[in-house]
Specification:
2 domains; mainly alpha; elongated
Length: 155
C-alpha cells in the first residue's frame, strides 16, 4: 500500500512530464496504457516476491564463475599473500648508558679509613626548649645516651 505522500509524488512526477511536452501528442489513451504497464510490472514483482519466501532464501547460492577475490580484473588473493610475507623489524635494543664519572669515581677511589659512626641510641622523646621541661630531664637523657655508648663499647 502506498502512502498519501508517495502517491502524490508519483502523480506529480508523471504530470510534469505530460505538461512539459505540449507539442507531443500524448493522449489520454497513451496515459492509460502507461498506467496499465506500470500496474502489470508492479503485480509481476509482487508475485516474484511472494514466490520467493523463506525456503528459497535458505537455498540461496551464488552461481558465478568468478572468484570472490577477483575484482575489477585484479586477484586480491595474491596481494594478501604479499602482505603476509613482510619482513619483521629487528627487536629493539636498549642503548647502553655509560656513566663514565661513576666508573672512574669507583675505580680511582682512594680508600681512607673513616671513623666509625656512633651506633644509634634508643629513641628518646622530642624535647624542645619552649616546652619548659625541668633541666633535670635534659641531664637524665644525656646520661642515658652515655650509658648506652658505654654498654656497647663505643669510644
Amino acid at each position: 500500500k502506498l502512502g498519501k505522500d508517495e502517491m502524490l509524488s508519483i502523480i506529480r512526477h508523471g504530470a510534469t512530464h505530460v505538461f512539459a511536452s505540449k507539442e507531443s501528442e500524448i493522449t489520454d489513451e497513451d496515459i492509460d496504457a502507461i498506467l496499465e504497464r506500470g500496474e502489470k510490472k508492479t503485480m509481476e514483482m509482487k508475485e516474484k516476491l511472494a514466490n520467493l519466501g523463506e525456503s528459497s532464501l535458505r537455498n540461496f547460492t551464488m552461481d558465478t564463475e568468478n572468484s570472490v577475490y577477483n575484482f575489477e580484473g585484479e586477484d586480491y588473493r595474491e596481494k594478501k599473500k604479499v602482505i603476509t610475507n613482510w619482513i619483521e623489524p629487528p627487536k629493539r635494543e636498549r642503548k647502553a648508558n655509560y656513566a663514565v664519572d661513576a666508573y672512574f669515581r669507583e675505580a680511582l677511589r682512594v680508600s681512607e679509613p673513616k671513623a666509625p659512626k656512633a651506633p644509634r641510641p634508643p629513641k628518646q622523646p622530642n624535647v624542645q626548649d619552649f616546652q619548659f621541661f625541668p633541666p633535670r630531664l635534659f641531664e637524665l637523657l644525656e646520661k642515658e645516651i652515655l650509658y648506652y655508648r658505654k654498654t656497647i663499647g663505643y669510644k
